[in-house]
Amino acid sequence: MSKTTRISLSLPEDLVQAFDRYFADRGLRNRSQAYELIARDYLSHATLPVDLTVAGAFLVFYDQAEKNVLRSLDAIVQEYHDAVMSVQELFISDSEKQTAIFVRGQGRRIQAMSDRLLGIKGIRLGRSLVQPLKK
Predict the structure, then answer these.
(1) Is 48 exposed, middle or buried (0-12, 13-18, 19+ CB in 10 A)?
(2) 3-state helix, strand, coil in the chain (%, to 5)
(3) Which residues are CB-neighbours of 88 under 8 A, at least 6 positions away?
(4) The Transcription factor NikR nickel binding C-terminal domain covers which part of the protein (predicted)?
(5) pLDDT at position 3
(6) 7 found inside a domain
(7) Each residue's pLDDT tens digit, 10-41
(8) Structural domain contains residue 117
(9) Coil, strand or helix: which one is 2?
(10) What is the value of pTM for the model shown?
(11) Judgement on whether residues 22 and 84 belong to the same structural domain of the protein
C-alpha cells in the first residue's frame, strides 16, 4: 500500500451532504475512502493509453439555446471526423439536449478530443466512456 497524504477540500455544504448520504448508503467507512474511489475512477477514465486504439462514447448534456455549445460541438466533430463513428442527438425537453458521440481511434487523439469536448463552456454535464480495443 502506498503512503497516505492528508489534503483539505472546500466544497459547498449541500454537495458534501449529498456526497455523505450517497456513500453511506453504499457502506463506505469514511470520506477519505469515498474520495479515493472517486479519484481512482476519474483517473481511470481520464487517462487513456495513448499508443493503443480505443473506442467508446462521449455524452454531453446542455441547453440547446446555448449557441456557443452547438457551434463548438459541430467544430470538434468536424475536426475529428476521422475518429467519429456516429453522432446521436436527443431532445430531453423543450430546452435540454443530449448528444452522444461514438468514436474509435488512437488513444492520444481520442483523449485530445475528449479534453476539447468536455471543456466546452455551457455544457452542464459531460462524460466519456472509452476503453482500449483488444489487438
Answers:
(1) buried
(2) 40, 30, 30
(3) 99, 100, 102
(4) 56-127
(5) 86
(6) no
(7) 989 998 899 888 888 888 878 888 888 888 77
(8) yes
(9) coil
(10) 0.71
(11) no
Cα(82)–Cα(90) distance, integer angstroms? 23
Q: Which residues contact 117 (CB under 8 A, 6 or more apart)?
A: 58, 60, 73, 76, 101, 123, 126, 128
Q: How many structural domains comprise the chain?
A: 2
Regarding whether 86 and 104 lie in a shared domain, the answer is yes
Q: Is 3 helix (H, G, I), strand (E, B) or coil?
A: coil
What the block records as the C-alpha cell of 43 is 483517473
The residue range of the domain holding 36 is 13-46
Burial of 94 (0-12, 13-18, 19+ CB in 10 A): exposed
Tell me the average pLDDT of the chain: 89
The 10s digit of each residue's pLDDT in 36-76 is: 888 877 776 666 677 889 999 999 999 988 889 999 999 99
